[in-house]
Amino acid sequence: LNENILEKKLLYGIILISSLATKDDSLKEAALKEVKEFIDDDYINDIYGAYSLMAMNSIYYRFTHLATEFDYSSMPANLRMQFMTKHKMGSTDFEMLCLAVAAIIGCGKCINAHDAVLRNNNISSQSIQTVVRVAAIINAISSIIKVSE
Q1: Based on the number of CB atoms within 10 Å of its own CB, is 76 exposed (0-12), middle (13-18) or buried (19 or more)?
Q2: Is residue 98 flagged as an active site residue?
Q3: Which of 63, 15, 60 is nearest to 37 (CA)?
């Protein structure tokens, strides 16, 4: 919470979306309570939208780059991604949120895609690293919760 590289709104968004990606209900509830002071309902709705897209995309695209017997990436994905154009937050924030989920789920193709978009939009390596560092911390907290229950 003392992070000073990201704007507070984005930092709390990364905390919330990372909590969702861990699928830990107690962590998600704690994160929702914590972020309410810093982000509004529209931003929270966009976080849920980004998470839903990444929950779908990271599994599908991880499959396409891990499957070696056929080039599934040459086939149309046919995934519905209408939320990509319906979110209210800035596109850079949206990409950073998606990167956090991709890192937790472990989809290299998604990580590289979101990293490239962020770099093309002149987002610093330090900011990108910070997104993933915060996601890693939230994931570690979830892991400790799970093993200590």
Answers
A1: exposed
A2: no
A3: 15
The tens place of each residue's pLDDT in the chain, 149 residues long, gives 788 899 999 999 999 999 999 999 999 999 999 999 999 999 999 999 999 999 988 899 899 988 888 889 888 888 876 666 787 889 999 999 999 999 999 999 899 999 999 999 999 999 999 999 999 999 999 999 999 87
CA 127 – CA 110 distance, rounded (Å) = 17
Tokens 């892991």, located at residue: 143
Are 98 and 53 a contacting pair, CB within 8 Å? yes
> Of the listed 20, 53, 110, 141, which one is catalytic?
110
What residue type is assigned to position 7 of the chain? E
Tell me which residue of 142, 49, 143 sits closest to 97, measured CA to CA.
Answer: 49
pTM value > 0.85? yes
Q: How far apart are CA 128 and CA 114, in angstroms?
A: 10
101, 107, 118, 138: the active-site residue = 107
Rounded to whole angstroms, the Cα distance separating 21 from 24 reads 8
Between CA 33 and CA 78 the distance in angstroms is 36
